[in-house]
Amino acid sequence: MYRICIAGRPNVGKSTLFNRLYGRRSAITDSMPGVTRDAVVAEARLDGVPVELVDTGGIGEGEAELEQAVYRRSYDEISRSDLVLLLVEVTGLTGEDAELMAYVRKSGRPAILVINKVDNDARELDAHSMDTGGIRRVVSVSAVHGLGMDELRAEIRGALGIAEEVDEGDEEEDGAEEGERPDPLTLPARLAILGRPNTGKSSILNRLVGEDRALVSEIAGTTRDTVEARFSFKGTRFVVVDTAGIRRKNRVTEAVEYYAVHRALETIENCELVLLVIDAVRGLSDQDKKIAARVEARGRGVVVVLNKWDLLEDRENQLNALRDRINFLFPVFQHVPILPSSAVTGEGISRILDRLVHIRGELHRRVETGPLNQALRRWLEQTPPPSGKRPIKVRYITQVGTNPVRFVLFTNRRKTFPEFYLRYIRNRIREDLGFAHIPFFLEVRE
Questions:
Q1: Matching fold, domains 183-363 and 369-445
Q2: What is the mean pLDDT for each group of 10 consecutive residues in the chain (446 residues)?
Q3: Burial class (CB in 10 A: 0-12, 13-18, 19+), 178
């Protein structure tokens, strides 16, 4: 798969161009310079050709430690790419532009100079008179308005040596025959890493994938875009998504952070597994509780990760205390594994992955109606439903969905079905049928 890197100084429109080529909004865009920090990677089809698009942080002359880390990451992405789209503004080249053009030329990477914000005839003339820095392929575009995109795609095909378009329908994903649905367990598992700012989420992502994929800094809120990476563990493929730290609304001070937090919460909708990362030193917060409730309400498989475990003393007592507090604050998380880890040392990472693989199996587990109702009859015999003037009759149960798992229980008294007895059936499903570590939904119908 071709890797196409979009590079340039801050605020020239890289993320807007990335979203335009990708076909939907993935990277955060804002008029404030330096919004993109991590490299945002997305697999896409460009005129039928599978490519990997990379949006990089702006490269400039800032001297702050975090800015320097962004620049290093962007230069690294340039060196790893098959093609560089070097983005500049039609309003004029700067010294930063010239230095970056020289770097790309010396790197030997194929490159296209993309002159952005060309949205009228006067600017088109300006673009034709610009110094191209020795880069042969040049295209004028307006990423905001979508102008020049056909010409850019043609230049990309030429630079990559793609002679003809690939028919998107010719390939069946993951080897599935036409008309067949692949086994979901053979597809990559989408794993979201969630939590408050500065709990070590990006460090955990880097530990999982085995490389410095996400920027790590002591500055809370370093991650803004959702950062995706892929890895495999014991035959299971994962797409892991690092998200912006989620904090209370009244502490969100920038529009960029507001959108980043919104994107992080949106990630819950598009994943099946979640690592809820808690700083073991700082402990729990109300915000952790809100994140947990949202994850549980969506029926996602969860592992609570107590990160920075290497910084604690008297670990056994601390672990028991933290588990008790989590179970007290998050009663819906009684079934959720709570595991200590250290992203710095790697302690606990393999155990977390083992548990995720097991939980994913539970999410896709299906119990046929026959065995399910045999189990129901056994539960009713062991603990009969309450009797009275209008006895409760439990007729049958069926599983209607996986990932999230859903059951429907049919009875003669839906509105007045006792909550304690529903809880009894829920617990028996969890204990007897192999759903010990996941949330599931149990609906009562007449």
A1: no
A2: 86 86 56 49 79 77 54 78 90 83 86 92 86 88 91 89 55 49 82 84 84 49 58 89 55 43 68 90 79 86 92 86 86 88 91 96 95 96 86 92 94 90 95 94 93
A3: exposed
> Does domain 183-363 bear CATH number 3.30.700.20?
no
Q: Side by side, which strands form the sheet with 405-411?
A: 394-401, 405-411, 440-445
What is the DSSP secondary structure assignment for residue 13, as one 8-state letter? S
Residue 117 · residue 123 · CB < 8 Å: yes
- Record: fold of 369-445: GMP Synthetase; Chain A, domain 3 (3.30.300)
- As given in the structure block, the two tokens for residue 346 are 């790697």
**Report field, pTM of the whole predicted structure over 0.90:** no
Q: Locate 258 and state its tokens.
A: 């507001």
> In the structure encoding, which two tokens stand for residue 335, read together?
């079934």
Alpha-carbon distance of 204 to 349, in angstroms, equals 8
How many angstroms separate the first and last alpha carbons of the chain? Answer: 53
